[in-house]
Structures are given as structure tokens and as C-alpha cells.
Description:
- By secondary structure, this protein is of the alpha+beta class.
- It has seven helices and eight strands, in the order αββααββββββαααα.
- The chain has an eight-stranded antiparallel beta sheet.
- Strand 1 and strand 2 (23-32) form a beta hairpin.
- The chain is globular.
- The N and C termini lie far apart (37 Å).
Amino acid sequence: MTDREQYEPGPASGAQVRKDGQKWTLILVRELRHPPEKVWQALTDPAHLREWAPFVADGSLGTVGATVKLTWVGAPTPIETTVTQADAPRLLEYGDIRWALEAFGGGTRLTLWHSIDRRFISMGAAGWHICFDVLDRLLSGTPIGRIVGGGAMKFGGWQRLNAEYARQFGIETPNWPPQAAQKS
């Protein structure tokens, strides 16, 4: 059995939501066993992002002012974004995503803020949870391959995480695909 086949995400944890109308901000915190410099490279380098993130970047995200096209898995067209903050290896911001890296116990406390439509907030939390697990294994030298988009939704632990995060956030578990799409 491969590492990927044995992978099972842990329980939903380290997440909260900041609510502002229909746009909610997911705040997800994870402690990684790797130094901030190594995590920074994984957050900014297109080759690293391709191994764990739910999008592909056509350039480095490590420089303020850089314009980069992000192609989210499953999205029909890339989204052009500009890096507004890049203070290596501490703070990175572009589009509706912000990352903070803090040296912590020999590793890094990584915090993600991501603005997501409230209807999909628990799904986003479940997806990022799995991405963070994949990132941690990648940086440890035991990659299990990217698990994102529709592939993540079919993955064993994703449905459980989606339901657990929905309960934590006090919302109904979203059905995916939507009921109307299931009937057609």
C-alpha cells in the first residue's frame, strides 16, 4: 500500500471564520515541522505549488508587484492576481489570500486567510486541510501527490472534513454537487 493509499486526514481543527455578509474569511492555522524559509519556498515557487496547492501559478509569488496568473483546479480560466505583500519568510498576500509564517518550536506556524463565499466555506476548509497535509508530507520528503478539486472531493476523508468544519462553523453541510445537478 502506498503512502497516498494510507493517507487519512486528521479531524477538522485549527480553523475559524470571520463573517462579513456573503463573503466570509476562512482562517486556518497549521503547525508544520519545517523552517519558515522552506515553507516560504513552497508558498511562492510555481514548481512547489504545483505539487500541493489547489492552483497552478505561472510565475513566482515571492515579489511585491508581481502579476501572476493562478489557474485553480477545475476553473475554466486563470485569474490574474498581483502580489501585494511579500516579506520573506513571514508574510505573503495576493488576491483574496494572505499567509503568515511564524517560527515555532523548530518549525513554522502557518496561518492562511482566504475569502470564500459563505456557501462554500466548509468545503474550502476541508480542501485546504488536505492541501496542508500534502504540503507537510512534500516538505518532509515523503510526497503523496496533490489532492485537490474534484479529486479531493472523491477522497475518503474530504466528506468527513466538510461535515466537521460545517458543524464547527455552525452551518449546514453543503451538498456537492448541488441537488439540481445530481438530478439532471
